[in-house]
Specification:
about 725 residues, 39 strands, about 30% strand, eight-stranded mixed β-sheet
């Protein structure tokens, strides 16, 4: 297996999901013109939220937490509060006259086949496909490239509600078996099951209480990471500890699994890894959280001890491939933009490293292997470039992508001669390309067909200066003939954290905004990974305010340049991006008409006390580590910066009852406090989805409902004329 790809996937799981960006749109049969709409205010009567005399002492400072009781997601009181809030929210949404038409239009746009890039297992190729409106994608298998596709696993047949997500997370060395993860109702908790590749027969193996894990196959079993079974009632909010590595032998019960690695001195650390393609080494990553980590390896042939190759936890070094004892390692050591080095584990001192790909001015975002070749993915101004070369770095040639956008790297085993990669941009629907290793040629394998004419729109990248003068890039998308008169509805999206890069990508939901004369903007804020590790560090810990300053400056730029105005501007973001929206709407409430924080981290003083929140301490810091850090966190924590009597933007908070990444208590407490503090007739509502989690695996029906509600709320509260367009 490719250890680097596994590491990237694990990092995405542990992070607050950047999830799931928020969207916008609407309708009106007549041609949209310059007239200003004035939708009547919809009266709102908020439920009364009880307060309690609860407080904490931080270095001599008392901080009240009157809504602490909402942290108990199992209590009858919290359940009644959720029901009451949803009644108000959906009562409001029901009164928006174009809400159903918005939903109908989005369902029409969303109803097209969606494919993943295939990957090879023996003689078979596997991929997932959603016919259009299926709640979950179906996993298909076909014999050879010209074989007839056959249904392998259909998650939609497991539950009538379509809330079960299935993903292939490992394949056996002999290609006879595939391991799959099952996640129910959006939870991060996984079950692992095993299927025969050729027959699709499900084996009796079932592993539970798994999180943030792949299945690293070796011989007659696989390595995986799990937690102990949580206490009853604490499954979704309890503090997860002791993330240890086990080996499961096929055909045996989980109770007989062998403990491979534990660290009782650091029970909050994460452990995950994979087996090198030659089956010789197990590579283990040990991470206090979402930033730096240590790297260890174990010689499986000799059943040797774990040997530390890279100590933690200041840097990030990951194994891409190995040639015997020589490991190809992607590292940021002495290279904030990353480089690829060859490290011989028999003489691993830094002076013995051999540079394969030197650091450059552009971020070396990742490396992969397949067909005996090495592939390097660079990020140049937040857009992808991919190069192929030999294992020693020679013979560098660029893969010719169809444009400027985002691409997935080719990847596979050394024996594979056909690989696949994807490409997309804001105006280029996702397309799967087949890559022929012997010739180096690419051809379209699966093209997205939908009713959308990209020639009517323009995408561009602009640069603006943040508060401290730092240049920041931003993507802007809109109709070609749009007037820059400040009257356009605009959605500004951001994330700004955890070294995550925001690059161009296609979204049918965004069409709703664009076809109604809207502007979509996405800023590459500090804290992200677009410009290397220094860019990331400039937006974390005691520099987190830079992220909010960058986002506010992006909004000011859009207003100044005539793209929009403050009464037509909405801001959106999810998870860490929800924190971004919460912080900016409390710091500059007059700048935005609408705020849409999704599954946000809103309580910066207590976030580390729930599920996997402690893993974000390297990014945010902790309120308990020092008075200075406590004061800094309190200074921007959205929950703690709401002020009574302030007119805040029209706000629609979104969360889900099964979110065990960023627990819904963040959104519950923030919404309660916002309703109490807010002055004015702007609605401040919370929409709480049931049987859903942080975003991953959300069924299509719930996605369509939620996006339609968010768009309807945005357009109604920006007085935007909405035209209903039928394809």
């Amino acid at each position: 297996m490719q250890v680097t790809n596994h590491l990237i996937n694990m990092k995405k799981l542990i992070l607050p999901l950047l999830t799931f960006a928020v969207f916008m749109a609407c309708k009106n049969e007549q041609q949209q013109n310059e007239q200003t709409m004035n939708y009547p205010a919809i009266p709102v009567s908020y439920p009364e939220t009880a307060t309690q005399d609860v407080s904490d002492d931080y270095f001599g400072t008392t901080v009240a937490d009157p809504y602490r009781w909402l942290e108990d997601d199992n209590s009858e009181e919290t359940g009644a509060w959720v029901k009451a809030q949803n009644a108000v929210t959906f009562g409001y949404l029901d009164k928006i006259p174009f809400r159903k038409a918005v939903r109908d239009r989005f369902e029409e746009l969303f109803n097209y086949p969606k494919y993943s890039a295939p990957f090879q297992v023996g003689e078979y190729f596997f991929y997932s496909k959603n016919d259009g409106l299926q709640n979950q994608p179906v996993i298909y298998r076909q014999l050879g490239l010209d074989g007839q596709p056959e249904e392998f696993i259909d998650p939609n047949k497991i539950t009538a509600e379509g809330t079960t997500a299935i993903n292939i997370i490992g394949t056996s060395d002999d290609d006879k078996y595939v391991a799959v993860s099952r996640q129910d109702a959006g939870s991060d908790w996984q079950q692992i099951h095993v299927y025969e590749t050729a027959t699709g027969k499900k084996l009796p193996d079932e592993l539970r209480w798994v999180k943030f894990s792949g299945a690293a196959c070796w011989k007659d079993g696989f390595f995986y990471s799990r937690y102990p079974e949580p206490a009853k009632g604490q499954e979704r909010s309890g503090n997860n500890m002791n993330h240890w590595v086990y080996y499961h032998k096929l055909g045996t019960p989980q109770s007989q699994d062998k403990l491979i690695f534990k660290d009782e001195k650091n029970p909050g650390y994460y452990h995950y890894g994979g087996v090198t393609e030659d089956g010789r080494y197990y590579i283990l990553y040990q991470a206090p959280g979402t930033d730096g980590f240590a790297l260890m390896y174990k010689d499986l042939e000799k059943d040797g001890p774990f040997v530390t190759l890279f100590e933690g936890y200041k840097n990030k070094s990951s194994v891409v491939h190995n040639i015997g004892t020589k490991f190809l390692v992607l590292t940021d050591i002495d290279a904030p933009n990353y480089r690829l080095v060859e490290v011989d584990i028999t003489s691993p001192a830094k002076e013995n490293w051999k540079t394969i790909i030197p650091e450059s001015a552009n971020l070396l975002q990742g490396c992969s292997t397949g067909g005996g070749k090495l592939y390097a993915n660079y990020l140049e101004k937040a857009t992808d470039r991919i190069y192929r070369m030999e294992y020693d770095g020679s013979g560098k040639t660029e893969l010719q992508l169809p444009g400027v956008g985002s691409a997935g790297m080719p990847g596979g085993k050394e024996k594979h001669t056909t690989l696949f990669y994807s490409f997309t941009s804001f105006l280029y629907p996702p397309t799967i390309f087949k890559y022929d290793v012997p010739t180096g040629g690419s051809s379209v394998f699966q093209k997205t067909e939908l009713k959308f004419n990209p020639e009517e729109y323009v995408e561009r990248q602009v640069t603006y200066n943040s508060k401290d003068g730092t240049p920041v890039t931003m993507f802007v998308v809109h109709k070609k003939d749009l007037k820059m008169d400040g009257k356009n509805p605009c959605v500004l999206y951001g994330y700004g954290g955890f070294n995550i890069s925001l690059t161009p990508g296609f979204s049918t939901s965004r069409i709703l905004l664009l076809e109604n004369g809207g502007v979509y903007a996405m800023a590459n804020l500090r804290g992200g990974g677009e410009y290397g590790e220094e860019w990331h560090k400039d937006g974390m810990l005691m520099k987190k305010q830079n992220v909010f300053d960058d986002f506010i400056a992006a909004a000011e730029y859009l207003v100044k340049e005539g793209y929009t105005s403050s009464d037509r501007l909405g801001i959106s973001g999810g998870s860490n991006g929800g924190l971004l929206v919460g912080a900016c709407m409390t710091q500059r409430p007059e700048l935005f008409a609408v705020a849409m924080p999704a599954v946000g981290v809103m309580d910066m003083l207590r976030y580390h006390k729930f599920t996997v929140g402690k893993g974000w301490i390297p990014e945010y810091g902790s309120s308990e580590e020092s008075q200075e850090m406590f004061e800094y966190l309190k200074g921007y924590s959205p929950l703690h910066n709401l002020k009574p009597g302030v007119k805040y933007p029209s706000t629609l908070v979104t969360t889900a009852d099964h979110d065990d990444r960023v627990v819904p208590a963040h959104s519950f407490k923030f919404a309660a406090a916002l309703q109490q503090a807010h002055k004015g007739d702007n609605p401040v509502l919370i929409r709480i989805e049931t049987d859903a989690g942080h975003g991953a695996g959300k069924p299509t029906s719930k996605i369509i409902d939620e996006i339609a509600d968010i768009y309807s709320f945005f357009f109604y509260n920006t007085n935007t004329p909405v035209k209903y367009i039928k394809g």
